[in-house]
Amino acid sequence: MIDNRYALETPEGIDIMLTPAGIGVRTMAFVIDLIIRGAILFAASMALQFTGNMGDGLFLILLFCIEWFYPVLFEIYRGATPGKKHYGLVVVYDNGLPITLPGSMLRNLFRSIDILPFAYLSGFIAILCSKQFKRIGDHVAATMVVYQETPSKVEHFTVDELPQTTLSLTLEEQQIIVAYAERSHSFSQERLQELANQLEPMLECRGKEAVIKLKAMAAGLVGKA
Amino acid sequence: MRQNDFIQLKQQEWQRFRETVESSEASDEDDLPKMFRQLTHDLAIAKSRHYSPALVSHLNQLLLLGQQKLYKPHNHILMPLMAFVTQTFPAQLTEFRWYVMWAHILFYGVALVFFGITFFDPEFVRNVLPNAQVVQLEEMYDVTAPRFEEERASDNDFVMFGYYIFNNISIAFQSFVGGLLLGFGALYILLFNALYFGVVSAHIVNIGYQTTFFSFVITHGAFELTAIVISAAAGSVIGFSLLSPKKLSRINAMKASARKVFPLIFGSFLMLVIAAFIEAFWSSSASIPNGVKYLVGGFCWIWVLLYVFKRSSNEN
Question: How far apart (Å, rounded) are the C-alpha atoms in residues B291 and A40?
C-alpha cells in the first residue's frame, strides 16, 4: 500500500502506525498560530500604549516571550499549539511519546534556522526531503508532527438480508468489501452507489440494490448474520 | 474466528483499557502494562487474520494512547536546568576544551592586536568604522555628558533588556549556522567581533573615556564575550566535523557533532540572557560607584573563566 504512514515498533514487538503531517496542513496551522500571536501582540500594544516607555519595554519582553515560548508552552502542556490542535495534529518524539521541555525547546529554537533565508524556505525544503516531513528543528530534536486520531468506534453497519452469494474472493477483495461497508456511514448515498456500480458485472445489479448486496457480503465476511 | 466474534469477545477489555488510559490517576487495581501487552497480542492477531482496516486502526490508536501513557517521559523543568548548569554544560566544555581554548586565544589575540594598532595609530579606527558610528560611540561614553549624573529611569532598562536579548541571541545562532559553512562562518563572526572589540576599546582609551566604557562593559562582558567565543567554538566543531568526518559520512558526521555541541549553544544562550539582564539593569546604572562595578565585574570574570576551563569530573 502506498501511504505516508510510519511504523513505530514498540518493545512489545508490534508496529504502531503514525501518520506524519505534511507541509500543507502544517502551513495552515502555522498561519492560525501567527494570527493568534498577532492578536495577542496587538491587544498588548493597545493596552500598553498609555504606559509610555515602561510599556515599550514590557512590550519587547512580551514579544520575546511570545516569539520563543508560545510554541514551547503549548507543546509541553497540551501537545501542540492551538493552530496544530485545530487540525488534529500533535508533536511527538520519534518514538511516539509526548514531547517534553528539552525537545520542545530544541525544535523551537531551531525555528530561527528553518526560517532562513526567508519565509521558512529551508524548513520547507527539509520537509519536502524527509519521509516523516521533518523540518530542521525536528531532525535536531528527534521529533515529528503527526495526526492524532482518537480511537474511533468500529462502525457497525446494518443489513436486512443474509448474503446468498457464492463468489470466491481473494483476501484483498474481501478486505476492500469490508472496509467499504465499515466506511459506508461517511459516504453519501450517491457515492456509495457510484462505487457499487463499478462491480456491476459481479453483482449483476445496480444502484441501491448493489449497495445492499455489497453490505450483505461484508456482513457475511465479518460473521454478522 | 470471524471478525465480529473476535470483537464481541474482546470489546469489554478494550473499553476498560481505554478508560484506564484516559483516567488521570493510575489505580493499582488495573495492571496497565499487562493490559497493554494483551492489546498488542490482539492487534497482532487482528493483523495476521486480516481483519478489517477499521478494526486494525482502532486497536492501533488504542495502543498509541497506551504507549504514550505507559512510557511518558517526565516533564520537569527546574531539575533538568540545574543538571544542565552543574553537569551537562561543564562536561561538554571539558570535552571540547581545545576548541574553546583556541577560540579564546584567537578572539583575545586578534582583539589585542587591533587594540595595539589602534592605540598607536588612532586614525586606524576610520578604516574600520564609518564616521557616523565613531561619533555615536564617542557620544555614548562621553564622560562629560550630563546623563551619567542621573539615574536612568527603570522603564528604559526594560527597553534595553528586550533589545539586548534579540541582539545577543542572533549572534549565537549566526555562529552556530556559520559552523555549517565548513566553520568559516563561525570563524568570521568570531574574528569580526574581536576586531570590532579591539578597535573600539582602543579608540575609547585614545579619547580618554575609559572610565565610563570599562565600568560599563566589564560585568556583562564576562558573560557576553565568553558566550560569543563558546558559540564560535561550537560552530567550528561542526565545521571541523565536515572537514574531517573520520569514519562517518560527512552528513552523518555533521549531524552527530551538531547533536554533541548543542549543549554548548544552549549554554551560551543562557549566558547571553544573563548578560542581557546585567547589561540592562546593572551595567548602565549610574548610581553604582565604578569601584563596585570593577569589583563585581572582576569577580564575574574569574567565576566565568573558572567555570569554563575547570575540568569537569564526570565526563560522559
Answer: 44
| Beta carbons of A151 and B18 less than 8 Å apart | yes
Give the gap in angstroms from C-alpha A176 to the nearest C-alpha of chain B. Answer: 8
A 10 A CB-CB count for A119 gives: 9
Judging contacts by C-beta atoms under 8 Å, the chain A residues touching residue B3 are 178, 221-223
Using a CB–CB cutoff of 8 Å, tell me whether A117 touches chain B. Answer: no
Global model pTM greater than 0.80: no
Q: What are phi and psi of A30, to 5 degrees?
A: -65, -40
* Interchain proximity B162–A139, CB inside 8 Å: no
Facing residue for B52 by CB, picked from A14, A153, A175: A175
- CA–CA dist A212, A174 (Å, integer): 16
Low-confidence ranges of chain B (pLDDT < 70): 24-30, 75-77, 143-163, 165-167, 173, 176-181, 313-316
What whole-number distance in Å separates Cα of residue A2 and Cα of residue B171?
A: 44
Q: What is the distance between the alpha carbons of residues A88 and A148, in angstroms, rounded to a whole number?
A: 6
Domains of chain A by residue range: 6-147, 171-222
Cβ atoms within 10 Å, residue B232: 36
pLDDT tier at A219, thresholds 50, 70, 90: confident
Say if residue A190 is exposed, middle or buried (CB neighbours under 10 Å; 0-12, 13-18, 19+): exposed
- From the CB of residue B145, how many other CB atoms can be counted at a distance below 10 Å? 12
- A97–B73 C-beta distance less than 8 A: yes
A31 to chain B, any CB pair closer than 8 A? The answer is: no
- A 10 A CB-CB count for A154 gives 20
Mutate to test the interface with B, among A51, A154, A184 (most CBs of B within 10 A): A154
Q: Indicate which of A109, A169, A175, A183 best probes the interface with B, i.e. most B CBs within 10 Å of its own CB.
A: A109
ipTM exceeding cut-off 0.90 for this assembly: no
Backbone φ, ψ for residue B208 (5° rounding): 80, 25
